Amino acid sequence: xxQTEKNAILKNEQERMRLMLEAVPLCCNLWDTSYNNxxxxxxxxxxxxxxxxxEYLNRFFDLSPEYQPDGRLSSEKATEKIRxxxxxxxxxxxxxxxxxxxxxxxxxxxxxxxxxxxxxxxAGYTRDLREIKAAEAEAxxxxxxxxxxxxAVPLCCNLWDTNHNNxxxxxxxxxxxxxxxxxEYLDRFFDLSPEYQPDGRLSSEKAxxxxxxxxxxxxxxxxxxxxxxxxxxxxxxxxxxxxxxxxxxxxAGYTRDLREIKAAEAEAxxxxxxxxxxxxAVPLCCNLWDTNHNNxxxxxxxxxxxxxxxxxEYLDRFFDLSPEYQPDGRLSSEKAxxxxxxxxxxxxxxxxxxxxxxxxxxxxxxxxxxxxxxxxxxxxxxxxxDLREIKxxxxxLNKMEQLAFTDAVTGIANRYHFxxxxxxxxxxxxxxxxxxxxxxxxxxxxxxxxxxxHTTGDVILKSVAGKIQDTLRESDFLARxxxxxxxxxxxxxxxxxxxxxxERLRSAVSEAPFDAxxxxxxxxxxxxxxxxxxxxxxxxxxxxxxxxxxxxxKAKGRNRVEML
Length: 564
What we know:
One of its GO terms (biological process) is negative regulation of bacterial-type flagellum-dependent cell motility. A five-stranded antiparallel beta sheet has the order 2-1-5-4-3. About 40% of the residues lie in helices and about 30% in strands. The longest helix is centred in the N-terminal third of the chain and has 22 residues. With about 575 residues, it is α+β, with helices and mostly antiparallel strands. It is built from 18 helices and 24 strands. The termini are far apart. Helix 15 packs across helix 16 and helix 16 crosses helix 17. The chain folds into four domains: about 110 residues, Beta-Lactamase (2-Layer Sandwich); about 110 residues, Beta-Lactamase; about 110 residues, Beta-Lactamase; about 160 residues, Reverse transcriptase/Diguanylate cyclase domain (Alpha-Beta Plaits, 2-Layer Sandwich).
């Protein structure tokens, strides 16, 4: 009895695992250490509308355009990312796939290194980023077509009289068992079953019992093992129905051939181990809700994400894994119930959520709830995508970008950022349009540093940069060039305009009070300006001219403007 219960529990567990995996909105595949694509799940075939898994494996590199949106060769970038996953343990990035007809399939790829036998594989998970509603509409269309086709499937039919004689059949009965004619089916019916059924009962006795039950209760449905005359098994589902016939009743038998279904089940069982490996490596916490909003199952990733003891703790303490209120001010329990109900009603819903570990550590995820078939009804499968790494990465990238392009002292653009933007401006400059460079130097700034210290000097640099920025036009681009030097690129000017602008800058700085170290420090600047007259002149040549003009201004006593 214990073994039977264990088998039942195992079967139920496998069914739930299969349900959750088939509903996972991810295409999965496996790469070996030689970068060979060695396996995939059925979702990969479905996503790219292929014939079977083998076509996916054979034509994987046809499922990407030659170049990715960043300009890189798809083949080179794919190899690099797989190598990165083997080296680092995981890699996540966006990718442009396509179907064999060229239809784009923008995706998010997650590559995860997993242990396999005595080595490693890389499991790839492809999240389709196209509109889910469009996919659902297409799926519904396909489902309707399948239903129409299924409703028209012909069945083997026969009739039994009250003495359990097989008195008639249709042509499909002859076709199913590859017989000569209907009479052979009627004469040799009991040769079309083995002596014993899989449950150990005599076929003749069990058949009589089922026919009697149909006469007594009106209907009986059960599985049956048929066979052809050559012994080939034909697993079937039999439905017996009592019907009016002439002056009495007969039982009509409808035989549904289960060979294709059984073969599919056998194939599914064969793939279960690989599916389990791939499922365990899915970088998503998954759980299952019933129609009463009970959390009835989860995967191991749910336990890992929240650092729990086991799955039961996740199920028992699910509502402890969210704060009382969500960031929008709503009660977590109320909002969760509303989202689950919406998923049951509409088929799916996606939203951001604030989870937490039992120690209170925040876990911001994206939740996707999808209505799925479960046993005799429906359940809602929940998929939790941890956003902590994404949010941290975005924050880090923003900080890195600021450090890369901004001068730390003044807060304005640095030399690298200036040169990059100025080069682009030169390239995109319309023919005949003038551009000018101004080099600005703080006069005798070394004295400020020596007298008041470098901290005060930095305050003065920042203040002068602010004064210059306030005086310039919005279209002018100011940067710190180095030390106490600033540089400005000015577009769409002539010599008179650049001369007046430079003089305004000089006056604005010399007349402004700069307070630091509890004292007012006078500051003046020297400016060298050069205007591009030769359309072939390079940015570097124009900067060199402006620098020469600056040298000239300093040589003539500083606090002045010179132009070349």
